[in-house]
Amino acid sequence: MDLSDLYTEVITEYGRSQKHRHPLEHPDVTERGVNPSCGDDISLELEVNGGVIEKAAILGSGCAISQASAAIMAGLIEGKPTGEANRLAALFLGMIRKDVTDENELEELQDGVALQNISNMPARVKCATLPWHTLEEALKKL
């Protein structure tokens, strides 16, 4: 399987995933992220206890890339300390900017690495990064 096949499979799988698409009963923080150029509009809800993200939920709508990126992110940050979630956001954004290219380091992003070549599609970069920028803003509120 080449990278474009993996990309398509990951976008399809996570874009359809409902695992993190439900409101949380008692979110500690909610942050909205909007990309007006393409209509992506997401709301990230986090339940945090003792500095650990116990639950992450993504609400809203958008293109398959933004929805898949959001689902991948939610899965990665759940159960992680907030500092680790912030570091993963920086790692993902660095990968998209091509600042981080070390494959061992990028392995931490798990399926998120399938979005690595989105930087070659400038019109789609904002779609892939919106959830991660929203996460950074949400973490600032804690």
UniProtKB/TrEMBL annotation:
Pfam families assigned: NifU_N
Alphabetical GO biological process terms: iron-sulfur cluster assembly
Gene3D superfamilies named among the record's database cross-references: 3.90.1010.10
Stretches assigned to the NIF system FeS cluster assembly NifU N-terminal domain: 7-90
Molecular function per GO: iron ion binding; iron-sulfur cluster binding
UniProt feature coiled coil, ranges: none
SUPFAM superfamilies attached to this UniProt entry: SufE/NifU
Protein name per its UniProtKB record: Nitrogen fixation protein NifU
Species assigned in the record: Sporobacter termitidis DSM 10068
Lineage of origin: Bacteria, Bacillati, Bacillota, Clostridia, Eubacteriales
